[in-house]
Amino acid sequence: MNVKREIVKDLLPLYVAGEASEESRAAVEEWLRTDPELARLAEALREDGAPPVALPAGSGQAALATTKSLLRRRTWLLALAVFFSALPLSFQFGDGELRFFMLRDSPQVSAACAAAAAVLWIAFAAVSRRLRVTRL
Questions:
Q1: pLDDT tens digits, residue range 10-66?
Q2: Is the torsion defined by CA of 58, 61, 66, 69 positive or negative?
Q3: CB 41 within 8 A of CB 12
Q4: Rounded distance between C-alpha atoms, residue 78 and residue 120, angstroms
Q5: How far apart are alpha carbons 18 and 15 in whole angstroms?
Q6: Domain boundaries, the chain
Q7: Percent of the chain beyond pLDDT 70?
Q8: Separation of first and last alpha carbons in the chain
Q9: Would you say 22 and 2 are in contact if contact means Cβ atoms under 8 Å apart?
Q10: Does pLDDT of 136 surpass 50?
Q11: pLDDT for res 46
Q12: Is the distance from CB of 130 to CB of 70 less than 8 angstroms?
């Protein structure tokens, strides 16, 4: 493979930091043997350390804020979905009898809670799918 000098100059910081692949390392070493100027530049990088890489302002902050927001939303959706799923099944045991609060006594409210639970579970699944990219 024919590697140009400018490409080797671009690879020098990776080479000095020990992050270059085997092929890149071999190409850089070949150039360093034949080009004394590149060898001096590599030595200067070793002595001074690699210059810090300037990241653009807010490069990862927007993604982090979005991920945090999605995690909070997923937590609330899960809590509300479990609550509305269990609410129609709530009961009280006392005076020798079992009394269901909503399922038997208020079927319309129970159906509304079940519909709300279904919507919340769907929203939870959608947010979880968006978070799958972050592996959370």
A1: 888 888 888 888 888 888 888 888 888 888 888 888 877 545 555 566 667 888 888
A2: negative
A3: yes
A4: 8
A5: 5
A6: 5-48, 61-134
A7: 90
A8: 41
A9: no
A10: yes
A11: 80
A12: yes
